[in-house]
Amino acid sequence: MQSHYFDHNATTPVSLEVREAMAEALSNVWGNASSVHRFGQAARQRLEASRRQLAALLSCQPKEVVFTSGGTEADNLAVLGAVRASRRERRHVVTTTIEHPAVLNACSQLEREGVEVTCVEVDGGCRVDPDSVRRALRPHTVLVSVMHANNETGVVQPVGEIARIAREAGALMHCDGVQAAGKLAVDVEALGVDLYSISGHKFYAPKGLGALFVRQGTKIEPLFHGGHHERDYRPGTENVPGAIALGRAAQWAAENLASEAARLVELRDQLERGLLARIPDAGVNGGGAARTPNTANLWFDGIDSEPLLIGLDLRGFAVSSGAACSSGATEPSHVLTAMGLSKERAKSSLRFSLGRSNTSSQVEELIEAVGQAVAHLRRLSPAYAHA
């Protein structure tokens, strides 16, 4: 049976060009980038070339890019590091109810350290109202953290407007860009953010690679303590082959962003139109808002998403019932319930996230498979009486 992958928001396969770049680096660029001899200097040159590739993707200066082990570390370094670096006697953070656990749990840690945290609600379209952020600000607010694009619905937040509000209040602005980088055009200068997190495995680089944009002059405390690597923000011998892989993925994304985004929008819209035409009592979560081009999240009344996910897997389709980091959770998605969905509707929702390998014919096959699986589960469901 042929399998088709529709879970690119969870992770992406490592692309051919990235594999080739990393294989070459593992063979030839094994020096310590801090060493002064030719092997070390060759590694340093390649590391800085990769930093320039990431800077081009984010429209920032190369010296403002800090390599990390992934999005979670980047988020933690931004949130914990920025707040801990503040010398104010009282400190307050504003975030939202739909953030990734890497941000929400970092904020929970800050609360244990005596920091006040306010989580702003979203509307039914999964959108943060900038005025809600403005109302949540306090005289001692030191950080605002709002994601660029939601991992479950793909809804894009008005980050630029929120960043202006934060700046006017004298607070730093962090943006979790893990689901945006490589899918949307990202210009951290235009957005006005001070900190921006990305993760390589969301745009065809290996897992365990990420970066944090730190605007020049922004003060953050490191999470780790050691040598003077990465501008003293992230000690430890740099993973040069990993950085080369991440840089190559960023280069491909920057060069192909517009064409690939347009292609994915067509496939996403094809998928949503086909599912809604075939399946009654269904709808798109966040469908009326601006979204990343590859993400569709739909609810199907009268069923539970877990058996639907399993049924699709048996038919050869990999999809998701929510964030991969929450797999196995018995509670419904915190994102969908924050949007106002009932527990039942939230648990009847599936996320489809498309990528480079997907085609129009695969989408048609997926529509057919979802239609058959939903019809089968509804026949078995006492909760569904609309047939």
Describe the fold and architecture:
50% of the residues are buried. The longest helix is centred in the last third of the chain and has 39 residues. Strands 2-8-7-6-5-3-4 form a 7-stranded mixed beta sheet, sandwiched between helices. The protein has 2 domains: 133 residues, Alpha-Beta Complex (Aspartate Aminotransferase, domain 1); 237 residues, Type I PLP-dependent aspartate aminotransferase-like (Major domain) (Aspartate Aminotransferase, domain 2, 3-Layer(aba) Sandwich), CATH 3.40.640. With 387 residues, the protein is of the alpha/beta class. Helix 5 packs parallel to helix 6. It starts with a strand and ends in a 7-residue tail after the last helix.
In short:
The chain contains 12 helices and 12 strands. It has helices at 16-28, 38-58, 71-85, 101-112, 130-136, 159-168, 188-191, 240-278, 305-314, 334-338, 343-346, 360-380; strands at residues 4-5, 65-68, 92-96, 116-120, 141-145, 172-176, 195-199, 210-214, 282-284, 295-300, 317-318, 349-353.
